[in-house]
Amino acid sequence: MAKVGFIGLGLMGRPMSKRLLQHGHELTVHNRSRPPVEELVAMGARAASSPEEVARASEFVFLMLPDSKDVMEVVLGERGVVKGVRSGSIVVDCSTVSPSTEAEIAARLAEVGASYLDAPVTGSTFAAESGTLTFMVGGEREAFERVRPLLECMGRRIEYMGPSGSGQLTKLSNQIAVAGTLLAAAEALAFAVRVGLDPRKVLEVIGSGAAGSWQLNNLGPKMIERDYAPGFKVEHLRKDLRIVLEVAERTGVPLFGASTVHQLTKVLCAMGFDKHGTQAIFEALLRFSHEAWKDSARAGAEPGLPPWS
Ligand SMILES: NC(=O)c1ccc[n+]([C@@H]2O[C@H](COP(=O)([O-])OP(=O)(O)OC[C@H]3O[C@@H](n4cnc5c(N)ncnc54)[C@H](OP(=O)(O)O)[C@@H]3O)[C@@H](O)[C@H]2O)c1
């Protein structure tokens, strides 16, 4: 059994680290706020007061943090992983962050004899709980092979994608597809509501045909219930699309859908939905449609159907 560290115990990190414990690994954990640490300690993990302390106690250190700056701080900051990591250890970043951040950190850790893999995931919090995540891994192949048995505790599909940053680039491709299908699902259901159809029936019919998608079939029911509890937070989709657009700008790829959804996530954050699930994009569309309805009524035009409430 391996000595494993885990830093970042949020919506994803908590269930992922629990699976490592359940597979019998010796786990040391750290998080910015205390409650998730206590939850893991109650299950048998050891608490560390800093990333440095996690690294000292572990041969493998997993990170599951929000953004590039958080990963930078946790690995290279004061009392960061780099201060405690042992030569031969492997640090595995499962967060979705910028590929250039990963390359910079990999080079810094190589100087102290440690390996660094970027290993972002796809799959919801449910996939994290059930150990069915997909891992897309970039970095040295040898380090990947050493860490694979641990990734298999948390995921069903584990893929090596190439040198450092390749995992993140794969994940960004994933997020471009997620953004497009999320917007399509929300628009289809908002339209169905506004033309007076039963959205549940519409979802049932179109979800099983050519329009079906993970976003429509999993988030559609939540949209209709206006249940915006987070699985994947709006602020994280905004961050992912910011990175996507930065990389696309450098490479010249035009991204029409991702740009639109990025703008929508900005508006959603301004509306106070930053910590809600990405299905809240449906709420924004409903509210825009409500405003448009009021405007046409004010102008004396045929106002169409009344807003859904
Ligand atoms: N949720 C999903 O469905 C999903 C799916 C695939 C990928 N992802 C990606 O996975 C990453 C994590 O997502 P999440 O949904 O788990 O996010 P989250 O719920 O916001 O969790 C992030 C965790 O990191 C902790 N943290 C932040 N800065 C820290 C620091 N300096 N030191 C120690 N801990 C720190 C936070 O602590 P606090 O308790 O203090 O906030 C929180 O527990 C993101 O990059 C996201 O894009 C998410």
Number of domains: 2
Taken from the alpha-carbon principal axes, the silhouette is: elongated
Query: What share of residues is helical?
Result: 55-70%
CATH homology superfamily name of the largest domain: NAD(P)-binding Rossmann-like Domain
Mean pLDDT: 95
Text of the CATH class of the largest domain: Alpha Beta
Output the strand order for the largest sheet.
3-2-1-4-5-6
Structural class: alpha/beta
Q: Per CATH, what is the topology of the largest domain?
A: Rossmann fold
Strand content: 5-15%
Total strand count, please?
Answer: 9
From the alpha-carbon coordinates, what is the Rg to the nearest angstrom?
21 Å
Helix/strand order, N-terminal first: EHEHEHEHHEHEEHEHEHHHHHH
Question: What ligands does this structure carry?
Answer: NADP nicotinamide-adenine-dinucleotide phosphate
Question: Which CATH architecture of the largest domain would you pick?
Answer: 3-Layer(aba) Sandwich
Give the terminus-to-terminus CA distance. 54 Å
Uncertain regions: pLDDT < 50 for 5+ in a row? none
Description:
By secondary structure, this protein is α/β, with parallel strands linked by helices. The protein has helices at 13-22, 35-42, 51-57, 68-76, 81-84, 99-110, 125-130, 141-154, 166-194, 199-207, 214-225, 234-251, 256-270, 281-298, and strands spanning 3-7, 26-30, 46-47, 60-63, 90-93, 115-118, 121-122, 133-138, 155-162. Helices cover 55% and strands 13% of the residues. The strands form 2 sheets. It has a 6-stranded parallel sheet, sandwiched between helices. It is elongated, with a radius of gyration of 21 Å. It has 14 helices and 9 strands. The chain folds into 2 domains: 3-162, Rossmann fold, CATH 3.40.50.720; 169-298, N-(1-d-carboxylethyl)-l-norvaline Dehydrogenase, domain 2 (Orthogonal Bundle). The mean pLDDT is 95. The protein binds NADP nicotinamide-adenine-dinucleotide phosphate (NAP). The site of NADP nicotinamide-adenine-dinucleotide phosphate has 28 residues, from helix 4 and helix 12.
